[in-house]
Amino acid sequence: MLGAIIGDTVGSIYEFNNIKTTDFPFFSPRSNYTDDSVMTMAVADWLLRDAGHYTQELEQSMLDFANKYPCPMGGYGGGFHRWLFNPEFLCEYPGYADANKAGKRRPYNSWGNGSAMRVSACGWVADTLEETERIAKISAEITHNHPEGIKGAQATAAAIFMARTGKSKAEIKGYISAKYGYNLNRTCDEIRSKYEFDGSCQGTVPEAIIAFLESTDFESAIRLAVSLGGDSDTLACITGGIAEAYYKFIPAWIVAEMWRRLPADFRHILDQMQKHTYYKPSYFTETMDRFTPDFIKELRSDEIFVFGSNLAGHHGGGAAHIANAKYGAEWGVGVGPTGQCYAIPTMQGGVETIKPYVDGFIEYAKQHPGQKFLVTRIGCGIAGFTDGEIAPLFADATKLLNVSLPETFWKVLSK
Fold this sequence. Notes:
Elements: H1 2-11, H2 35-49, H3 55-68, H4 78-85, H5 96-101, H6 114-117, H7 129-141, H8 147-164, H9 169-180, H10 188-192, H11 205-214, H12 218-227, H13 232-247, H14 252-259, H15 264-276, H16 282-285, E1 303-309, H17 318-326, E2 336-338, E3 341-345, H18 351-367, E4 372-375, H19 387-390, E5 403-404, H20 407-414
Parallel strand pairs: 1-3, 1-4, 4-5
Antiparallel strand pairs: 2-3
Helix pairs in contact: 1-12, 1-13, 2-3, 2-15, 7-8, 8-9, 8-13, 11-12, 11-13, 12-13, 14-20
């Protein structure tokens, strides 16, 4: 589910400005979730609240989320927008005139890819593939009751279920091809040169699955999906949901970047999905508390401020000054713990001279599991080193749950 939201967010700025390459900035300041993520959360909310999976409850979840979260990027398709906010204008569809008189919404025979982009939670709640497909059908047909709309949702949810239960890519490809009739024998290179915007399930779901099949890890899956062009956010949303389930890992820097962009309700639903379904993504529950904040305004009683110092312990500038002024670092002590701080000298020579002190810190952190160590970007300020030079020194610290590292370090280490 988080994988789907990441794909949606990364693809959001390329939907109407296709990139047609895998070489692009993964996130930008303008990247944000779209209607794909809002409805993904609505479906998850429905599944958490309604064990019987009744469409009336699903309709309410969709309306609640659509009203609370107007999309910061893009918008709902025309038919779905009318279904949400102006169902009286859907009278041209069979059965709508009578339905509207009764004040009820009805499906409008859509084959659009909206049914597939919102379905990822369905792949995480069921015990069997058959049950997954049944729930996916319900999630689709409340609006997308065209056979292609239903098929797109079922194929996506089935791929997620198979991926999270350990099936191989060959098994996933074989099942989806055989049951749903999608042509998955193309390559991304073959698709990319001719592919244009296509809002249908039949023109989006196969391409999204192919991007997953061709990928080597989560990030490459998203990059391949976006590079195809077309409806980039929805393509990458579908791909991301499957890739997350298959690889069972999302790099920490990507998780952190996405997490800070999510509304509190989205975070709460993801947390509840972990507690009540098969969705157990330890890579973000364990890592979100492992990123040192960019600005540390105060420390809890168990937190330790880890900063770059000099051997003389002259804490005159940068993080060292903050450590001395606010958190008890002693002037004249350039190595180790004082107050609520831990000093790592970085001014005495090259990177190789820093490593022994980092190793000493890691050993100290191992011996003090009850303390939380917030490592700042040591050596990357006055000392003049880069994140690429310093971050590898902390590779062993990534195994310690009581050590937080700067996002820039995680990004280096994740590669």
